[in-house]
Amino acid sequence: MIGIISTAYFTVKDRPGIKTVRKYWWRNMVIQHVKYRGKFFVIATIGYGKANAAMAITYLMEEYPALETVLNVDLALSTNDKFDTTDTVMATKFIYRDADLTVFKDIKYGQIVHEPEAYAFNTEFVNQVKNFKLGVSDGIVGTADMLIYNSKQFKEMVDKYGQTIDVIDTEARALAQIAKKSSVNFVAMKVMYNNALSPWDNDPLHKFKIYETANTLKYLLARLFNLLSSRYVLDFTKSSNDELEVINELFEMSHDAWAKRFKKNTTSLISGLGPSLMLVDKNGVSPEAVDIVEVMKTKLDDEGPSKVILGEDEWKNAPKKWLRKLMFLSNIHVNDDELLWNKSAKYDIKTSKIHSMEDVAKAVSKAIADRSQDKSSYTYDGTTVLKKHLLVTVDAAISFYITNNLTHEFVEDPKHGSKLVANEFIKHLNEQLAEVETPYEKVVVFFKIPAMGAAKLPVFVQTKSRANQPIVFGGYSAKNQKTYTVVDITRNDYDPLKVGSFKVTIRLKNL
């Protein structure tokens, strides 16, 4: 069981494989039990300060003897110029910055009598989280029941302590002290709200920074849940950031199941051995290689946040550093009452380029054809890897809706709808790759389609398992092609008898 302690209150939305089992109050804490992909998490929302933190972790360890790991995931202030709003620090070293017992011999500022100067964690769990990267940086956390408002206060603290710290908070060191004494794994993940040495209490961007930081916290937790609930042994030490973006999306969309598309008895995913990933079984006797290629990658928008989120003046003065990981700021504006299953029809075309299905299929086909020219092989543990696969992912806005050719009604069932979209892509891919032979045992194309609310559905299309033969994507249905039409809103040349002479979007108003 894994415990998460935070001053932020958050809930997990129930969906297949994910369920909030129980929620209750204890003293001044909210406790939630979440079952996520077969792994149990207990989430404690606590009040500020060391006393609340100590009470929370003590309660969790006594109430849940199976607790093996505690994470402190929270917002914090930076005292290091290299950490800015939404940057995340993963701390494994913790000090008190308000403890002054230097009257005792050989006791340093920040140290408690009969306690070490700092608590540090360097366990296998810490290495596992580091390998997964998650866009975090290392740092030291200083804990106190006080905040630092200016550089003078900070200098006075550093002069007393003798070294600098990167993050200030009001909980982490107390949690670390009790976890260390109880032999429990502990890591703190702190998302920076602002720099404590700047006038953050009167910041005109306060509202936006809180919004950004909270969304980054959601993003971080989602990835942590996927990492910690995986049954695989994961080592992404040598993976590039782009590859990790893809891998994290795969975990988000289909969790451990995506790797079984290539190798069913996979137990370990390892990077740095030649291909993007090496899929290894329990005995390591028949590893298989997976190359990852991303096409139509969206360029980073370095012009700051959307004007829709901020006012005009706020937007002009916003910082330039906005990371792609802030996926909750996508430029998709949709009313919940629209009678369209696929909401990509409401992409903001002023800020986002919409690609037709044919354009995407051409880009994917070109990537597959180009990579198929590479006949090289990989080795693992001194022997040649006999099977290698190709995973092509798409980072492009694709806009469409699905209609029944007889009734002209929209298809609103997500599961069936994603199959119809895959069917449309398979048709184009098979046409464009008919004369291409591939050295890969299997080629898989993965992309996401927007669904109801903020959800996204995974679409996987894959070839039949055979190397050194012409590429054929399996699963195409001629019947579905006759019954339904996947209508690309960037085109207007469809048969009006299939899709209707015009499309009407109805918005229901509350009376």
Write a structural description.
This protein is of the alpha/beta class and 511 residues long. The protein has 2 domains: 2-229, Rossmann fold, CATH 3.40.50.1580; 233-299 and 347-488, no CATH class. Helices cover 26% and strands 27% of the residues. The protein is built from 12 helices and 25 strands. It has helices at residues 50-63, 124-132, 151-161, 172-181, 206-229, 241-254, 257-260, 312-316, 357-371, 414-432, 478-483, 496-499, and strands at 2-6, 18-26, 29-36, 39-45, 69-78, 88-96, 119-120, 136-143, 167-169, 185-195, 233-235, 266-270, 277-281, 288-295, 354-355, 379-380, 383-384, 387-394, 397-398, 400-404, 437-438, 442-450, 456-462, 469-470, 484-488. The strands form 6 sheets. It has a 7-stranded mixed β-sheet with strand order 11-12-13-14-18-22-23, with helices on both faces. Strand 22 and strand 23 form a beta hairpin. Helix 9 packs across helix 10. The longest helix is centred in the middle third of the chain and has 24 residues, at 206-229. Residues 301-310 and 314-346 have low confidence and may be disordered.
Fold blueprint:
Blueprint: E1 2-6, E2 18-26, E3 29-36, E4 39-45, H1 50-63, E5 69-78, E6 88-96, E7 119-120, H2 124-132, E8 136-143, H3 151-161, E9 167-169, H4 172-181, E10 185-195, H5 206-229, E11 233-235, H6 241-254, H7 257-260, E12 266-270, E13 277-281, E14 288-295, H8 312-316, E15 354-355, H9 357-371, E16 379-380, E17 383-384, E18 387-394, E19 397-398, E20 400-404, H10 414-432, E21 437-438, E22 442-450, E23 456-462, E24 469-470, H11 478-483, E25 484-488, H12 496-499
Parallel strand pairs: 1-4, 1-5, 5-10, 6-8, 8-9, 11-12, 14-18, 15-19, 18-22
Antiparallel strand pairs: 2-3, 3-4, 5-9, 6-7, 6-10, 12-13, 13-14, 16-17, 20-25, 21-24, 22-23
